[in-house]
Amino acid sequence: MDKRKLxxxxxxxxxxxxxxxxxxxxxxxxxxxxxxxxxxxxxxxxWVAMLLAWYLSDDRFSTxxxxxxxxxxxxxxxxxEVFELLLNEQFVQxxxxxxxxxxDIFFDLSGAFTAVFYVALRIMNIPExxxxxxxxxxx
Length: 139
Prior knowledge:
Layout lengths: L2 H24 L2 H4 L4 H20 L6 H30 L5 H26 L16
Helix pairs in contact: 1-3, 3-4, 3-5, 4-5
């Protein structure tokens, strides 16, 4: 795996996220556009998964690596939701919103799965026909 290429791509992604987040805070997009957090969670899930793929993988991107990356992205997304819940209860006192939390985690994981496919297809140059996310020998 070309770790330098992966690092550069995830650094570019985090820069885009930071720039869009700056605009969202400045222009109140999180409050005026009900859907705005969805693409942000998607991009955040992508970034976390790319960062974990860069950090946890060596020269190959195995099935175990994929599982660790997806699980790690889920844990980070869930931790963020707990942080939001505690912050809301302490300062804002908004009512807990389960559909919003589930939506956020869904988009975190969607971004993570997209990142896994991106890493496999574009960073590692695995042909689509060569993608296997199960062990065919054990089946």
